[in-house]
Write a structure and sequence with these properties.
Layout lengths: L1 E5 L7 H13 L4 E5 L2 H10 L6 E4 L4 E3 L3 H25 L4 E5 L6 E13 L2 E16 L1 H9 L3 E5 L2 E3 L4 E2 L3 H11 L4 E6 L17 E2 L15 H13 L4 E6 L5 H6 L3 E4 L1
Parallel strand pairs: 1-2, 1-11, 2-8, 5-8, 6-9, 11-13, 12-14
Antiparallel strand pairs: 3-4, 3-6, 6-7, 9-10, 13-14
Helix pairs in contact: 2-3, 5-6
Length: 267
């Protein structure tokens, strides 16, 4: 079992990702694809007059502040445009892909935060009316059913709160929970960088290997959104996933390259 998460940042080659995913699926790999859509969400939000607002938590993690209007744009892009574009590309490559949000069949459920403690302008603030949360449960039976019948699940946030509300969740951490609960051998996180870099301005500063026991020591090295990826990797490893790979989604055969060691490997 392989769980692949592809980000939604600018520069990612979704066609190359789908080419490579199809190659592995058609060769017999049981695979779940999880995706984001952050860049396209920002573009659409700006056009609709609801510019994105990013906040930094008191623990230093950056996230999108998601009020109800933002959540609706988020659903429009993630569940609609991006999810169906990926499903279409995979179908064209011979993969019987099936798109699902975390809402469908209560696929991804967890706790909605409601309020966020953030740092803005050097001051602590409490933001209310937030629709973000954390995935705790995966509908494993649904994913197993789909895989057993030859479907390749293409999964995207949002998730479902225990109160039955849609909520924005981090895609990397959601993929980590899916990998844990599906007992995946490997979680591959593809983004618009070659892996974890010691210097974000130097792609030659790639860290190639991280011992599983030391992954949390690298939280200080990670910058920006990569901090959430390292946190997700830590959670996946702690949950029994054999290895987590960070690799580049801007190149041909990104999944094959990642599995061959062209990225950062945590194991």
């Amino acid at each position: 079992m392989l769980v692949v998460k592809v980000g939604g940042s600018a520069g990612i080659d979704l066609a190359a990702v789908c080419d490579d995913v199809a190659r592995h699926v058609l060769a017999g790999t049981r695979l779940i694809l999880v995706h984001g859509g952050s860049h396209e969400t920002n573009v659409v939000a700006e056009k609709l007059g609801v510019p994105p607002r990013f906040v930094t938590s008191v623990s230093g993690f950056q996230s999108r502040y998601t009020d109800r209007a933002t959540l609706e744009i988020f659903e429009m892009v993630y569940c609609g445009k991006t999810n169906k574009a990926i499903v279409e590309m995979l179908q064209a490559r011979g993969v019987n892909a099936l798109g699902l949000s975390g809402l469908d069949g209560a696929l991804l459920t967890g706790v909605r935060k409601g309020t966020l403690k953030v740092i803005e302008g050097g001051k602590r603030k409490l933001l209310r009316g937030d629709f973000t949360g954390k995935v705790e449960r995966v509908n494993v039976a649904l994913l197993d059913l789909l895989l057993a019948h030859g479907y390749t699940p293409v999964v995207t946030p949002p998730a479902l709160s225990y109160e039955g509300e849609a909520m924005n969740v981090d895609g990397d951490r959601a993929a980590a929970v899916i990998a844990q609960q599906m007992k995946a051998e490997c979680l591959v996180i593809l983004s618009n960088v070659p892996g974890l870099l010691r210097d974000v301005h130097d792609e030659g500063s790639l860290i190639r290997t991280i011992p599983a026991a030391a992954v949390e020591d690298y939280m200080g090295v990670a910058q920006g959104r990569m901090r959430m990826k390292v946190l997700g990797a830590s959670e996946a490893i702690a949950g029994g996933v054999g290895a987590v790979l960070f690799a580049d989604a801007r190149v041909p055969q990104p999944l094959t390259r990642a599995l061959a060691g062209q990225g950062t490997k945590i194991a």
